[in-house]
Design a protein that fits this description.
It is built from 40 helices and 23 strands. It has 880 residues and is an alpha/beta fold. The longest helix has 38 residues, at 781-818. InterPro entries: 5-3_exonucl_a-hlix_arch_N, 5-3_exonuclease, 5-3_exonuclease_C_sf, DNA-dir_DNA_pol_A_palm_dom, DNA/RNA_pol_sf, DNA_polI_exonuclease, DNA_polI_H3TH, DNA_polymerase_1. Residues 634-842 form the DNA-directed DNA polymerase family A palm domain.
């Protein structure tokens, strides 16, 4: 499905102006904070949403039809500062360079134009309309998944997409009911009066109950002066009086809040095809004039290649150079000349900038070529004897893979090196690394960036060497870069029909849960509102559990806190179930169909090599690491991940990998022997701490033993175990004491590793991956306790991450050496599991060799065991 994005420009400009300091100015001294923020959001939108068509709307100066009908409309608002208004024309300049048409009409607000454009867009087949805005005024336009709102939650980077489900989650209302809600509640930001004395909670309750203002007032007319009916409807005489006295004002408020969708505008999809009018040279000049050097790099995040190939435009040379000349190599002869120089030097430093690859072999001559000509560089980049250096080389590897080139010889990635040296950095962007390490700003330009990479390479090489990390860097981290690039490109096949059925089922279950929750509460309320939920649980129902308070002093309704109330009232478990369903629905079921790549027909996640401090991989866009696997709904969702015709999905999953590593590191005799004998470790643990024979171990005993085994590795204390196991505090304390006595090796390891962290300031995995813990000697009890938990956990969890990385590298080598590219594809790594797509006739053979690789990544004192399964989808699998 193609996408039409409608930009609420005024809302974004206002948001940007107030979000960024008034210290951002152009080289000529012009204030540009709003323009910078607006442009930053624009680039993020282009990257995240990948729109096919875009239109921008603006307010014009002067009164609208609403001002004429209601003189007080927005009258209380303070006039925006002149510094903001002065930047609006500059944002229009930016939009023009991106080929985005602007719509504005006297007498109407930008929201009305968006409403009209959205209505036109809805009539187009296979087109989704996405409204990009800085506020929630356009939520009334949401129409299932056909029209959604992409808005800023906090600042300029924290975004949320509102489809029908998300609107329901926020207000407990359907999108079309939002205007009724505003008619009753009013809207202080626009000076819309509403009904005095009716706030958000009451307005939402009334619309939820009656469906619309019209139905509400019809019902009031029917039950007037009938006290029994008034009471049955959940209304009070006082409330009815307020509504009756302000009926005209309520309907007038609804009219003011209603977005007009019939504005006469000249619209066509062709006009909004931004890529046809995109002018990269103009973008480069505008960015340079405004001093937006940090945004230049982000242009490479945008998929503009289709526009470049259509218009035969090159990224403006000035974008690639500042102080050093870069030679454009866009012919066979020019590329051959560059290749010869690389072959002579046996090394190349490279980076993607926009649609071009910039590279050098000696820091004297710099070259650039279109990515569409990368096939001419195949000889050099598939030669493992020619070393390749860069900063964030995975996108480079992916670009070559798209051209059928498996890049070899990736020797040094400064981003990966920076991560390995200090894994808790928040940002690994090249200018930030350069500033951190050399104390100076990085000048703009592709050549300067390559020079910076070479300077940082020397610095980080020394640091890696001093910390004993060269082996991990060269043998694990660098080989993993192309492996992750290929895995991301492989993607996963999704069964859309399965997701649709699941969505219907979840909606039905949510509706049933909502009715039960409201029945227990004795009133209707927005279950997704923490404020209303708090009032129901702690005021109306009077629950008294020991729940922590928020920063503002209110009782928390977070999931972990509600868990403490489980059993006190039936409503609590219903709410927890409701939240679980709602999260899976809004996080996975609804968004996934829109994330499928139109070219490949598959879902492509991003695997972050530098995303965690422990060394485990993380995943984003979408995050596939957090898909629940233990719940029935989570399993049902996994059914939507399917194999292609002629293939099977093959899953290989380590069995209790963390505990096996813990047994090895700690040298605990009982745990080690249990694993060697092939016993169920949780049953053995239950035997030891409860003093019973294996036959006498109950399901509850095993569950408590399992909570103990995993919990202690994450630094869980008495209170944590009490919550996890459901035991009393005294029992929890007794169980932990018994555990420490029976598994003395684990107890000794925990004490020893904390002492080592205090002495050295860091802890390491088996292979030497470090985690620095400066807080452990801070003298602040809370920080010290947290650092101690990290000290216990990192050697185990970090080693687990190391083993998975080694396995992925070795399996990738095997695939390329022993099989054809279409025989088997690595699709995903989730926790201790690797997922593949394998040809039907090769399932047994390939799974056997992969299992062998995974079980032999490292020789521990206990055996590594891998469970292999296969099936047509990720849920319904059987052992191989």
């Amino acid at each position: 499905m193609k996408k039409l994005v409608l930009i609420d420009s005024n809302a974004l400009v206002h948001r940007a102006f107030h979000a960024l300091p008034p210290t951002l100015t152009s080289p000529k001294g012009v204030l540009t904070n709003a323009v910078y923020g607006f442009t930053s959001v624009l680039i993020k939108m282009l990257k995240d949403l990948k729109p096919d068509y875009i239109a921008a709307t603006y307010d014009l100066a002067g009164p609208t039809f609403r001002h004429k009908e209601f003189e007080e409309y927005k009258a209380h608002r303070e006039k925006a500062p002149d510094e903001l208004y002065a930047q609006i024309p500059l944002t229009k300049e930016v939009l023009k360079t991106f080929g985005i048409p602007i719509y504005e009409k006297q007498g109407f607000e930008a929201d009305d134009l968006i409403g009209a454009l959205a209505e036109r867009g809805k009539k187009e087949k296979n087109l989704q309309v996405i409204i990009v805005t800085g506020d929630l005024d356009t939520l009334q336009l949401v129409d299932k998944d056909k029209v959604v709102v992409f808005t800023l939650r906090k600042g300029l980077t924290d975004t949320v997409t509102y489809n029908e489900g998300e609107v329901q989650k926020r207000y407990g209302l359907k999108p079309e009911q939002v205007v009724d809600f505003k008619g009753l509640k009013g809207d202080p930001s626009d000076n819309i009066p509403g009904v005095p004395g009716i706030g958000e909670k009451t307005a939402a309750m009334l619309i939820q109950k009656f469906g619309s203002m019209e139905n509400l007032y019809d019902s009031i007319a029917e039950i007037k002066n009938q006290k029994s009916k008034i009471k049955n409807q959940g209304l009070s005489e006082k409330l009815i009086q307020k509504l009756q006295e302000n009926k005209d004002q309520a309907f007038f408020s609804k009219k003011l809040a209603t977005i007009v969708r019939t504005v006469d505008i000249d619209f066509s999809l062709e006009k909004t095809d931004w890529r046809k009018n995109l002018d990269l040279q103009a973008i480069e000049k505008t960015f340079k004039d405004f001093g937006f050097y940090s945004l230049v790099k982000r242009l490479s995040e945008i998929d503009v290649q289709s526009s470049i190939s259509t218009l035969d435009l090159n990224l403006a040379p000035a974008l690639l150079q500042e102080s050093t000349h870069i030679k454009s190599c866009d012919s066979v002869k020019e590329i051959k000349n560059a290749v010869d120089k690389i072959k002579l030097k046996k090394e190349v430093v490279l980076e993607l900038v926009g649609d071009r690859l910039v590279f050098t072999s000696d820091s004297k001559e710099f070259f650039s070529t279109k990515t569409e000509l990368l096939s001419l560089l195949k000889e050099v980049f598939e030669d493992g004897n020619i070393s390749k250096t860069g900063h964030d080389l995975k996108p480079v590897a992916k670009e070559f893979l798209k051209k059928g080139i498996h890049i070899k010889g990736l020797s040094f990635d400064t981003k990966i090196a920076a991560y390995l040296v200090k894994a808790d950095r928040k940002d690994y962007d090249l200018p930030i690394m350069y500033q951190n390490e050399l104390g100076k700003d990085l000048a703009v330009g592709g050549a300067n960036r390559l020079d910076a990479v070479l300077e940082l390479k020397k610095i980080f090489w020394d640091k890696l060497k001093n910390d004993g990390l060269i082996k991990i860097f060269e043998e694990i981290e660098m080989p993993l870069v192309p492996v992750l690039a290929e895995t991301e490109l492989n993607g996963l096949k999704i069964d859309i029909s399965s997701l649709k059925k699941l969505s219907l089922s979840v909606n039905k279950e949510l509706s049933g849960l909502e009715k039960k929750i409201h029945k227990h509460a004795g009133t209707q309320f927005n279950i997704n509102s923490p404020k209303q939920l708090k009032e129901i649980l702690f005021e109306r129902l009077g629950l008294k559990g020991k729940v922590r308070k928020t920063a503002k002093g209110a009782l928390s309704t977070a999931a972990g806190e509600l868990d403490k109330l489980s059993g006190e009232h039936p409503i609590v478990d219903l709410i927890l179930k409701y939240r679980e369903l709602q999260k899976i629905k809004t996080t996975y079921i609804e968004p996934f169909p829109h994330l499928i790549d139109q070219k490949t027909g598959r879902l492509h996640t991003t695997l972050n090599q530098t995303g965690t401090v422990t060394g485990r991989l993380s995943s984003q866009d979408p995050n596939l690491q957090n898909i629940p696997i233990k719940t029935e709904l989570g399993q049902e969702f996994r059914k939507a991940f399917i194999s292609s015709p002629g293939y099977k999905l093959v899953s290989l999953d380590y069995s209790q990998l963390e505990l096996r590593i813990a047994a090895h590191i700690s040298g605990d005799k009982k745990m080690t022997e249990a694993f060697k004998r092939g016993e169920d470790i949780h049953t053995r643990t239950a035997v030891e701490i409860f003093g019973v024979t294996p036959e006498k171990v109950t399901a509850n005993m095993r569950r408590e033993a399992k909570a103990m085994n995993f919990g202690l590795l994450y630094g869980m204390g008495i209170l944590g175990f009490q919550r996890a196991s459901g035991t009393s505090r005294e029992q929890a304390k007794e169980f932990i004491n018994r555990y420490m006595a029976e598994f003395s090796g684990i107890a000794r390891y925990m004490e020893d590793i904390k002492k080592k962290a205090c002495k050295d300031g860091y802890v390491s995995t088996i292979l030497g991956r470090r985690r620095y813990l400066p807080e452990i000697n801070s003298g602040i009890p809370q920080l010290m306790a947290q650092a101690e938990r990290m000290a216990i956990n990192h050697p185990v969890q970090g080693t687990e991450g190391d083993f998975l990385r080694i396995a992925m590298n070795r399996i990738s080598d095997l695939i390329h050496k022993e099989f054809n590219d279409n025989d088997v594809k690595m699709l995903l790594q989730v926790h201790d599991e690797l997922l593949f797509e394998v040809k039907n006739n090769l399932v047994e053979k390939i799974s056997k060799v992969i299992k062998s690789i995974m079980e032999s990544v490292y020789r521990l004192d206990v055996p590594l065991i891998v469970d292999a399964r296969y099936g047509n989808n990720w849920r319904d699998m059987e052992p191989i």
